[in-house]
Amino acid sequence: MASVSGIGGFFFRANDPDALSAWYDKHFGINPVSAGPWLQDAGPTVFSPFADNSDYFSADKRWMLNLRVDDIDGMIAKLKTAGIEVETREEWDGEYGRFARVHDPEGNPVELWQPPDSE
Fold first, then answer.
1. Which of 94, 31, 85, 40 is nearest to 67 (CA)?
2. pTM of this prediction?
């Protein structure tokens, strides 16, 4: 029986695709398409449409990228050292793990998620 085995890509528009691709490579290790596909670790992926009036992320954005991390404290420290503002809230952390939020240079929200089984 045919089924979907995972997400094969995430495609979005950018004002400066090359610069944005370089930013994701530098800070998250997500290599640009020209370097070949990003081979990620197997693990949980959440696919969840939100209500149009959700306040979980900025109302002027239609999507938010969520990146799974293995050491959220280390990632937060790395990003802050690079001068990137990182938002955390106690109410975001709980049974589903720990979360932090940044915005890429074009203002797109990026959520960092450390699942509870990797803590």
1. 40
2. 0.88
